Amino acid sequence: MPLTDAIAIEPQTQNNAGRTRTILARRLADIVCLPSSRITPVERHMSGDLLVGILAQSPLDLRKRCARRVAPLVDVAPGLLRFLARDDIEVARIILEESDALSDFQLVEASRNATLDHRLIIARRRGLSELVCEALLAPGEPEVTALVLKNRSAKLSQDGLDRALELSRSHPIICEGLLKRSELRPSQGLTLFWWAAPKERALVLTRFAVGREIMQDAAGDIFSMMAEEDWQDPLVRKAMQFIERRQRNRAAIDKSPYSSLENAIDTALEIGLDATLAEEISYLSGIKPVTGAQILSDRSGEPLAVLCKSTGLKRDYLVKLWRALKRPVGNAQTPDPSMLGTIQCFDSLSSNKAQTVLRYWNWALSSELTAEFKDEIRAPGDMALSKDLSTPERTAALVYGQWGEG
User: pTM of the full predicted structure?
Assistant: First the structure.
């Protein structure tokens, strides 16, 4: 046969081959789609394996047609479903959005081994298990994390929430979604507070600023027992410091040259708030200087409102402390919005609820913050927060350390 004749019939041969492949794919798909009453699992799996081998070398359109055929089915060869779920996004979308046959294992595998687009689709599926959510959150992609948090039917583990919390520090858009999750613990919410926007901070305080009446009633007689033991048990001492009603430190007041918290604030307003006075205000308020520094240096005023309300200061002393910090006050006609927001926060809290928040912060931010640990969390390097960290260690690492800083 002349070469020209061979060239002339080559397209026809290719077309025939493509037609034959399409027909065989359809026949195998017919077999795979048979109900369980007409086909054994072994036959279904074998047919599925043959079909995958053909589809792997077939055009996109044929793979899409197969995906549309398979998506509504309950009984599908696992290998075929796995292949289609990890295929190009145009094919995989059909399976990931419509198929109820996908197992948790297959969703986890697709989450780990496919693309961002695949994970975005999976994140919208109803009824996501903790295992699937863990796989979706593992890469630390803010878009996927936000969708998982928004998915009300998704089940999140505490490790998954911790991953989202870490990510929220460098991607604040995640904060709102986190605060809407019922699984969020007080430790996570009160840590998130430090980088949340004012609106979200208000949500944190509304949700986690609670009274301690039940704990105080239950532990009322423990104070006298501990006094008899001279407060020797450090674990009980820390717990009782959280529970007790009195916030100001009487021992610090007796030793202070200012004799009261009010006098220390008056002095700060008169001469300026330096590091020494800030430490003194912290001790008088019953908190560690590191906690006081975090509150006084905060970019907004909500922590200041919590401090003043919990220590029984009047509103005018909140304004005095605000002014001592050189914060803007505006004028009588147009007060500064930040100051007004701080005052509103102060007015919205009861002393007992404010004390709960302040004491939690003091415990979480200072109880495990040794010099060695501070050096470790501030060391440069691409590290992840260890699951072995205690709650106060994790809080201190997120607030003071290099994790989460974009």
Answer: 0.79
